[in-house]
Amino acid sequence: MPYTMEDFQRDYIKEHLNVLTPDEVLQRFSADKLLKGLSAEECLRGISVEERLKDLPMEEIEAYLKEQENRKQSERLFNLAKKYIPGGVNSPVRAFGAVGGNPIFIKGGSGSRVIDMDDREYIDYVCSWGPLILGHAHPEVISAVTEAAKRGTTFGAPTEREIELARLITEAFPSIDLVRMVNSGTEAVMSAIRLARAYTQRNRIIKFEGCYHGHSDSLLVKAGSGAATLGLPDSPGIPPSLTQYTYNLPYNNLAAAKEVIEIHHADIAAVIVEPVAGNMGVIPPMAGFLEGLRELTEKHGILLIFDEIITGFRVTYGGVQTLFDINPDLTCLGKIIGGGFPVGAYGGRGEIMEMIAPSGPVYQAGTLSGNPVAMAAGIATLKILSDKEIYQRLEKTTGLLTRGLSENIKQLSIPAVINQIGSMFSLFFTDGEVRDYASAKTADTKRYARYFRQMLKQGIYLPPSQFETVFVSTAHSETDIERTVQAGFTSLKE
Ligand SMILES: Cc1ncc(COP(=O)(O)O)c(C=O)c1O
Asked: pTM for the full model?
């Protein structure tokens, strides 16, 4: 079907309403001349196609139509997907809701690049949300996976590879004696919480605002009205009786944790934390925060759970806990340990882990847990990462990128800050320090949306949300970084 002016008008307006303020929309359409005193939405509803288009500069229409032409296949597939899949995607952030426009559909990936269904190439900084630390289709990972698949993809019976991956994990994490494989991060955290409750025979947990631990009921929680009030469901479908056991406290605020623990410790089973937060953009822990949590939890017989699903094998071989030399009681892993396949894991002190069935009474199981293809991908990935120089190289490449972007920000006098640790970072469009959810939320998300879209046009695929992490892989080259910094300059000027 030809792409008509009507289509153009509909899409243009839809997209720009997402990324521009109503005032900016008004300005673009010069609608104030025509419809004084009405809101942008009222103007857009009330004026005809001709009226809307006549005030748009021709170059803008042409550039927009060209862009649409470049996304034809992705648009076609997204429309088709919506017929069969809720919202057209299998995980919400993929729908580009936070940045406007429709998602690009990916045909394939190699190294640092992905190609979309319209054959446009992008330098990829999403890296499947973290797992692909070696880039796309790393030859050694693909070869290990192919070899495993040829011998059968799942048996529902133990295989040798499960021991090998468990060995690599326990050797990398001094706090992990035993580890259980599951199929996703959500499952790992949900199981670790169950185990902590069983071990301590207590019910309540503490999490931190802006940290994401998967979508299980007791963790999909928003804060109640005061620090010491219990959480409220953050999605319909979660009974308040489940979230009433969860406190949602400000990140990096040891005093708030102390206050709640001192009052309620007798019924607190666990404190769970992303030791470097990655789900409100990157926020490193402030000096003393993690150490303080360790001290408080130990004192009161509460289990400390580090959710290292992003940070495990990302910030170093091992996780944040090896960098900071803190031993949590339990650790949740995922992403990188699956080498691009669906894997999660939880592990910790032997005495606690022995409570899991069949050693102990805490039930947890999985049809595909520890399946040989995922194990093969994880083992191949960790073996490559065990060369510790890799982390120095990753840090160097990432530093090159963040320094370049900082320079852009400075030259253009844009209020923005970059938080980085190892090969993960976020650029927040705000001028103050970003140290918790409240300060992250001061970021200008509309500006991020514009930046994202300009970068995408220039072949740079960033996370489609201000509050996500940019991931750099070993496949990103200095040329990739130079191109990204240049594209960043142009995009920030827009
Ligand atoms: C820190 C953290 N924990 C848990 C999860 C949930 O993992 P999954 O998406 O594999 O269920 C994520 C996902 O991004 C995460 O970043």
From this structure: 0.90
